[in-house]
Amino acid sequence: MDKRTAIVEQMPHLMRYARALTRDAVAADDLVQDCVQRALSRLNLFEAGTNMRAWLFTIMHNIHAQDMRQLGRRPRAVPLDNELEERRGTAATQEGSLAVRDMARALDHLPDEQRDVVLLVCLEDMSYAKTAEILDVPVGTVMSRLARGRERLRKMMDEGVPALRSVK
Amino acid sequence: MTEPRTIAESDLHAYVDGELDALTLTEIERWLAEHPEDAAKVHSFMLQKRLMHQVFDEGLDAPWPAGVEEMLTGEPRHAWWPGWTKIAATILLLVVGGATGWGFTTFSAQQAHAEKTFVESALNAHAVYSHDTQRPVEFTIDSGQEKLLLDWLSARVGEELMTPNLAGAGFALMGGRLVADKGMPAALLMYQDGNGKRVTLYCRKAFEDKDSTFKVISEHDMVAFYWTDGPLSYALTGEMPRGDLLYLAQMVYKDIDS
Hints:
A: mainly alpha, Rna Polymerase Sigma Factor, Chain: A, Arc Repressor Mutant, subunit A, 2 domains, B: alpha+beta, Phosphorylase Kinase, domain 1, 7-stranded antiparallel β-sheet, 8 helices, globular
């Protein structure tokens, strides 16, 4: 398959992962743009037959980490887009919208390194090995961060999520 | 038989993430049956996954940022089509009525994706709810609650909706319900004729930014006519000959437009 077509196929996943990383639609769009641009500029480095999604996620993760360092702020400084939150609240969700909202907030309270692993494994269905590759850490580290992240989420979901500063 | 080994915490995670071989899988399932605390943990980790999907999955359908499509394809319009569109185009797509300016030339990959999502959701909603004998609609109309229904659905869909009158074709409005279209609220109105035949009108915020003519798609026994008119996209779905459904779709269209 043409490499560009392979990127087009991954676009929905890039859009979702970018929103999960930034929690802000505008920042997510910038991130996707930067990611696609960088991917295209080094398309010759992508080895045919390897995992395009993991390759793109690696690029996106690195750009995001770099952005955060440059901005010198935590990624979760921006509250979830209110409109999105409202729509989510009204959607007939299986688990109930309160739980969904709690999860959104609970993720904000995870340390970055745990959230990175949790999002890749739980949301993007990346294997432990691929997650280790994307984040450039050993597989054992992925597993321990995942375990800690999940325990923390469980505790917050059970005992209540600390309130965010700007929750509507 | 060997004594089953003790299951470690990391095995529980690997189980949730599908990282286990078949042998360990059986061991774990036996373990969980006897260790309710661990089973509760596994359940809660699985629930976390589902919730994360509910939080973020609408990102899958988010409009692509400006310029990305051009970057990827070299031009705004291009030959990349998902398979279903090809099938729809060659077999099922009709342009009906006085079609003017059929907008295929500017059909983009993203639009195709948005359209696919919309039509699939409409067909799914029809398939699930029109055959529900217990509770096909959340709100019934019998007690003159039409306005209540409309206000309720309009508030959730975020646009002012109306209930087209299909009495001329023998179909009466039964009521409606709210359905989720990949996290986006959509309204499903249901009509029934004297023989118990049902059609559904599915509508939500438009998936494309300009009006379209009727398009048609068939799946299993279902036929759907769908179109965009102003801020809303509509799909009328039923199990009947295409010509009959088209007649109804035209009634809906005229009623909404007048």
